[in-house]
Amino acid sequence: MSRAVLVTRHPSDCVELQRLLDPAGIKVRPYPVLRIEEFDDLDGWRTVLALLARPDIRPWLVMSSPRAPQRLIRFARHHGAKHLLDCSVAVVGDATAEAAAEAGLGVDHVGPGGGAGLAEQLIERLDPGCPVILACGKERRHELPMALEEAGHPVHPVVVYSMRATPPRELPPLGPNLEAVILTSPRAARLYLEAVGGKPLPLQHWALGPTTGDAARGMGIDCAIPPKPTMISLAEELCQN
């Protein structure tokens, strides 16, 4: 009998976890409660273009999601901001690094699987007052930009995608042999709960980090959290249980 875990992400965002779980024979079953839409942030691009026009500064480009790189490239070309692609690049996690490389970006620093961890490492590398361009989603967490700004690094977000709730009728069936549910963000946790009728499935639930775990518990979902907020750590826990 095959084992399966339900993950509140789009199939394209589950590739890394599936690769890690393949040796254990565990199948990832995507349950994309959020779907991706491109977002053209005109104000954000005006700010980026003005920043790139200054010869006295060299901003860093930062991304925390594998959804960002390809969309960033397209919008940068559309807005005539190709020099942005020459900036030093820092990303959160191996999946984002792979997506950046596939988009043709060189990656100078790969941080651990969380925004706060990347900020801590990046602060040690940045020159005093160095600005950061954050390519991100419209709905995003704030640990990374807050930590950088508190350290004196202005952060300029440019939104390249938005996450919209998937109508429950368009979600795939849950399917058989589920052993666990992986909640990937506070918003995804809420939409998952709505999609399954307001009561969590009678399975082990995991949250990728403490923020999602706390939010899920506030909704009545008892969640475990892997020792580190990374796919590798999560996969190790799933394989042991």
Number of helix segments?
A: 9
**SSE topology string:** EHEEHEHEHEHEHEEHEHEH
Which overall shape is indicated by the principal axes computed on the Cα atoms? elongated
> Runs with pLDDT <50, length 5+?
none
- Provide the helix percentage: 25-40%
Kindly estimate the percentage of residues that lie in beta strands according to DSSP. Answer: 15-25%
- Terminal Cα separation, in Å? 16 Å
Give the neighbour order of strands across the main sheet. Answer: 3-8-7-4-5-6
Structural class label:
alpha/beta
Biggest sheet layout: 6 strands, mixed
Overall pLDDT confidence = 92
Number of β-strand runs:
11
Global Rg: 19 Å
In short:
With 241 residues, this protein is an alpha/beta fold.
Could you explain how this protein is built, in words?
With 241 residues, the chain is α/β, with parallel strands linked by helices. Helix content is 35%, strand content 23%. It is built from 9 helices and 11 strands. Strands 3-8-7-4-5-6 form a 6-stranded mixed beta sheet, with helices on both faces. Helix 1 (15-21) runs parallel beside helix 9, helix 5 packs parallel to helix 6 and helix 7 packs parallel to helix 8 (210-218). The longest helix is centred in the N-terminal third of the chain and has 11 residues, at 42-52. The radius of gyration is 19 Å and the shape is elongated.
